[in-house]
Amino acid sequence: MAPELALDVTGVRVRFGGVVAVDGVDLPVAAGEVVGIIGPNGAGKTTLLDAVSGFASLDRGRVVLGGVDVTRELPYRRARRGLARSFQDARLFPTLTVRETLLGAFHPSFATGTLSEALTLAPARREERAAAASVEELLGMVDLDRYLDYRISELSFGTTRAVELAWLAARRPSVMLLDEPASGLQQSEVRALGALINRIRRGAAVVLIDHDVPFVAGLVHRLVAMNLGQAVADGPVDEVLSHEAVIESYLGGQEYAEHRA
User: Which of 106, 117, 183, 238 lies 20 to 30 Å (CA to CA) from residue 248?
Assistant: First the structure.
């Protein structure tokens, strides 16, 4: 029996004018699976995530999330269905504190309205207490207690990335799309990032793009290699990293092959 798919991307094609950025890519992701995507700059990796999350229109193909066809849905509708997306630059409000940022992640699920919150009515207070408790649960997974009252603009890049991941995890998504989470981090931060992602995903499927091949290889269950908008290899990590097309296009040709040998 085939595993249940959290995400099923079929024949996706994205065109910008005369340029085909993604050309007929399939990306099935099982529930709980962690899939890495590698490839040179311009391979179409980020555009593929844009297509899955609704930020790029499809010329052809289909995106199914948890059994529901979301191909024509706007990004916020996909987010409500359990799709979380990070970007290469952490997109958080710089003037908010870490506490305010994490609390804000729960507000879209509040049943009470603005008036109830402004008047601090009992239902609004209950939801705020529940959100505060959920923030404490998140803090049990990420080491951010000391930064709770720091503004986002005052944090290091690595700490900002940790806040962003915690913010994404707050909504308990079924699928997380992470675009170069290790980019700009120090090596000590990269070493800790894999464990952090495994903690905050809480069983969610993950599709991860990054140029740090050892980091990706150590984290994922399956690897996809892209080049010129197409998937050139898909399978177990060692198999994909040994694929001739991957070595030639991305990993340094013969020199890399001799190093692995």
Answer: 183
